[in-house]
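Hi all, posting the design record for the shared folder.

TITLE: backbone redesign
STEP: 1 of 1
STRUCTURE INPUT:
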């Protein structure tokens, strides 16, 4: 069984709705998130940790809100900022900006302990550099399944542009009420409608296509 690794019920709802066939079940595992400027390395490291915990195929979902005029803030720190500031105050910060364009990004990381064509660098440059430094001369560190650091991980990315607005809507979760795409906020959309346009929906689409061939 494929395990969707998240503590966030909203993410799970969207993944279950997209994949529909009951092929995923939640693994409520709070993997240690490394500090990084990009989502890829965080998700890749998380997928390895989660695979070690679960012992079966896992997908880790790391997402964030990137506000253009704030150089991508809160980005990979979105979770911390939601917990500390809260979305109302993120709206207050964005309210005075001339340009309120923003984007959601999602990176899904898949790991099943097997060898496959893993995502290339710079996904986990640090891990592979470390493996290369201690391992043999050839590039077998990419495909061998010997240590957590060398477990292959496949990444799928999704992106959706929008803008920050005053909170509207009761659906969704997290930053959805302050993120407008078209003339609706994500919190005003049904799960299916959000999945059809969202960062997570796009990443799930890429994953589902790849997984069907696996
Ligand atoms: P897990 O790590 O356990 O999956 P999390 O909620 O901490 O749960 P992230 O670190 O990926 O997950 O999320 C970063 C923040 O972005 C967090 O505050 C989420 O609520 C928010 N977020 C992620 N996806 C979102 C979405 O589709 N709509 C609105 N907010 C979202």
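Okay, here is what came back for every position:
SEQUENCE:
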């Amino acid at each position: 069984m494929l395990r969707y690794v998240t503590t966030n019920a909203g993410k799970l709802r969207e993944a279950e709705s997209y994949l529909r066939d009951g092929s995923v079940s939640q693994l409520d595992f709070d993997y240690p998130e490394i500090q990084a400027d990009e989502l890829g390395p965080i998700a890749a490291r998380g997928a390895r940790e989660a695979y070690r915990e679960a012992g079966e195929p896992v997908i880790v979902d790391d997402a964030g809100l990137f506000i253009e005029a704030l150089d991508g803030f809160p980005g990979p720190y979105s979770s911390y900022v939601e917990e500390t500031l809260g979305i109302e105050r993120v709206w207050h910060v964005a309210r005075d900006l001339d340009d309120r364009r923003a984007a959601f990004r999602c990176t899904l990381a898949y790991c099943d302990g097997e060898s496959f064509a893993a995502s290339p660098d710079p996904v986990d440059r640090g891990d592979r550099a470390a493996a290369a430094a201690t391992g043999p001369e050839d590039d077998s560190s990419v495909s061998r399944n010997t240590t957590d650091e060398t477990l292959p991980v496949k990444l799928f990315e999704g992106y959706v542009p929008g803008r920050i607005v005053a909170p509207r809507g009761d659906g969704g979760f997290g930053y959805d009420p302050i993120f407008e795409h078209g003339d609706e906020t994500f919190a005003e959309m049904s799960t299916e409608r959000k999945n059809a346009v969202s960062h997570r929906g796009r990443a799930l689409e890429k994953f589902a296509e790849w997984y069907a061939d696996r």
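COMMENT: Confidence is low (pLDDT under 50) at residues 134-147.
Let me know if anyone wants the other runs.
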